[in-house]
Amino acid sequence: MIEMFEEWYKSRHEYAKEWKDKTGGKVMGFFCTYVPEEILLAANVLPVRILGSHEPQNVTEPHIFGMYCPFCRDCLAQGLLGRYDYLDGMMIAQSCLHIRQAFTSWKKHMPPEFTYYLPMPHQVQSPRSIPFLRSELETFKGAVEQWVGKEITDADLDRGIELMNASRQAMRDLYDTRKSANSPMTGLEAMYAAASNQWIDKAEHTAAVREALAKELVGRDLGLGDKTRLMILGSEDDDTAFVNMVEGCGSVIVTDDHCTGSRYFWNQVEPEEDRLLAIAKRYINRPACPTKDWPQRTRLEHVRMLAQEWNVAGAIIIQQKFCDPHELDIPEQRKSLGEIGVPTLFLELDVTVPVGQFKIRVEAFLEMLAEEDLF
Ligand code: SF4
């Protein structure tokens, strides 16, 4: 089952096309993890997170400003290259301007039959954010109902909530196994599991995680007990070549805080009579993206908790080049982790990663951590 996550990661488009053929259902591409997938699942739509391919490309230059982050340009390139031509719909929940530009350009040049912009509030700490989002979810639900031609009932919403909650709990349990001094899985395997969770049918993915937990991970010994324990945090990161390189230098990545990792599945919807209110509360209260983490800095405490509970020796802070939200977040994160004795290494990611250069820096960081351990 563990290998299945890698297979799903690599065959995302084939999977979605087969799913469509098999079920006759609609597929919704989405940017940003603030999109309320519960409502899409309630309508029997398959949500598919749009991610890049980490290959050099020359198609976005006329459409998106060159100083926008490489991640949003890589995402748009996938659309311009026709790799997501099977999408029936495409949506975004407001997060940052960069990814919104990718959405806007995609909508203009390759509009699928349904597109939606969800005004997810930025000031999530305002008392008005929950009622505001609840009302936006109501409007969104109505638009989806019109699109699929079917009413979404409370029972449908309950099903959507249950599917998402079960998936989130399974992923939390999977990440918990990595608290062990001898993690039964590598960071690369965890990245395949966490990323593929964002486009595979939720019930199927949850069943695979549960099977891995019950059968493969119990007593699994990969000899990771003597590796240096690291966490990754920062901008979006599904760069498997980068993670592979970091772990190849003698470390194991045991946890993360970024939007293709734990931030996607961290907290649950707490069921209540008003289903949309319950969903709104979940998205307002989830671990925040730096675009929404103000005026209070809640992310600092959350990241410290991850570092301590997963017992990391150091943290690699990655920033997608030109990612303003994380650029603002990073100095405080470095200071905050430093205060609890977790040294950090800062690296700036582009569409492709200069693996050789980064390897030297990662090796030096690991050497420094080993020296700290000695004295
Ligand atoms: S938050 Fe950063 S990495 Fe994510 S889309 Fe925005 S600019 Fe890019």
The side-by-side strand order for the widest beta sheet comes to 2-1-3-4
Tell me, briefly, the overall form.
Answer: globular
Poorly predicted sequence stretches spanning 5 or more consecutive residues:
none
Order of helices and strands: HHEHEHEHEHHHHEHEHHHEHEH
Radius of gyration (CA) equals 20 Å
Bound molecules: iron/sulfur cluster
Helix content: 40-55%
Question: Secondary structure elements and their pairing?
Answer:
Elements: H1 2-10, H2 12-23, E1 27-31, H3 37-42, E2 46-49, H4 70-80, E3 89-93, H5 97-109, E4 114-118, H6 129-148, H7 154-177, H8 187-196, H9 202-216, E5 228-234, H10 240-248, E6 251-257, H11 262-265, H12 275-285, H13 298-309, E7 314-320, H14 324-339, E8 344-349, H15 355-374
Parallel strand pairs: 1-2, 1-3, 3-4, 5-6, 5-7, 7-8
The structure holds iron/sulfur cluster.
Iron/sulfur cluster (SF4) binds at residues 69, 71-72, 96, 98-99, 235-236, 320, 323, 325-326.
Quickly list its features:
375 residues, alpha/beta, 4-stranded parallel beta sheet, 15 helices, globular, binds iron/sulfur cluster
Can you tell me about this structure?
The protein is an alpha/beta fold and 375 residues long. It has 15 helices and eight strands. It has helices at 2-10, 12-23, 37-42, 70-80, 97-109, 129-148, 154-177, 187-196, 202-216, 240-248, 262-265, 275-285, 298-309, 324-339, 355-374; strands spanning 27-31, 46-49, 89-93, 114-118, 228-234, 251-257, 314-320, 344-349. It has a four-stranded parallel β-sheet with strand order 2-1-3-4, sandwiched between helices. It has a four-stranded parallel β-sheet with strand order 6-5-7-8, with helices on both faces. Helix 14 (324-339) links the parallel strand 7 (314-320) and strand 8 (344-349). Helix 6 packs across helix 12 and helix 13 (298-309) crosses helix 14 (324-339). The longest helix is centred in the middle third of the chain and has 24 residues, at 154-177. Residues 69, 71-72, 96, 98-99, 235-236, 320, 323, 325-326 line the site of iron/sulfur cluster (SF4).
